[in-house]
Amino acid sequence: MRKFDKQDRTILELIQHDATLSVADIAEKIFVSKSACWRRIQSLQDDGIITQKVTLLDQKKINLSTTAYIVVRTNQHNEVWAKKFKNIVEDIPEVLEVYRMSGDIDYLIKAVVADLEGYDRLYQKIIKVDLFDVSCSFVMETIKQTTELPLTCLNVS
């Protein structure tokens, strides 16, 4: 297990908030040289802590104003079905996240579409795999949305 210090944590906080920050900007904020900062960032990448850098888009401004959470139940708990389901949802660009769940539901899917017709097209793709039950809830209002993971759990030295 990697040991983190305050500078590692600060680097992670900074780049989670703004991945466009230059190494020089980060180095200045954590009071180290650019080369030392670059080595730290490289180490965080090599250790798989930083997995990718992305650009977030405003979904409404690109005509994806409807967010849907789709609950899937199946009565086929086998490898063949699971592989087919995985292949189908991985090939649908509107599907952003898919989770295999514990409890009363088997899978939870987060998807974005332009409208209800877009959801129906998505639904028609999902049901190509034999499903026991599918239900959907649409987001009425986004109260909080972030991609930043809390770093208070890191034991920093």
Describe the structure.
- By secondary structure, this protein is of the alpha+beta class.
- The chain has two domains: 41 residues, Arc Repressor Mutant, subunit A; 80 residues, Alpha-Beta Plaits (2-Layer Sandwich).
- Helix content is 36%, strand content 17%.
- The chain is built from five helices and four strands, in the order H-H-H-E-H-E-E-H-E.
- Strands 2-3-1-4 form a four-stranded antiparallel β-sheet.
- A hairpin with a 6-residue loop joins strand 2 and strand 3.
- The longest helix has 13 residues.
Average residue-wise pLDDT: 96
Please write the CATH class name of the largest domain. Answer: Alpha Beta
Unreliably modeled segments? none
The total domain count is 2
Strand percentage: 15-25%
Helix content: 25-40%
Q: Provide the CATH superfamily of the largest domain.
A: Lrp/AsnC effector binding domain/regulation of amino acid metabolism (RAM) domain
Structural class by secondary-structure content? alpha+beta
The main sheet comes to:
4 strands, antiparallel
- Please name the CATH topology of the largest domain: Alpha-Beta Plaits
Q: What's the helix-strand series? A: HHHEHEEHE
CATH architecture annotation of the largest domain:
2-Layer Sandwich
How many angstroms does the end-to-end distance come to?
Answer: 14 Å
Radius of gyration: 20 Å
- What is the count of β-strands? 4
Strand arrangement in the largest pleated sheet: 2-3-1-4
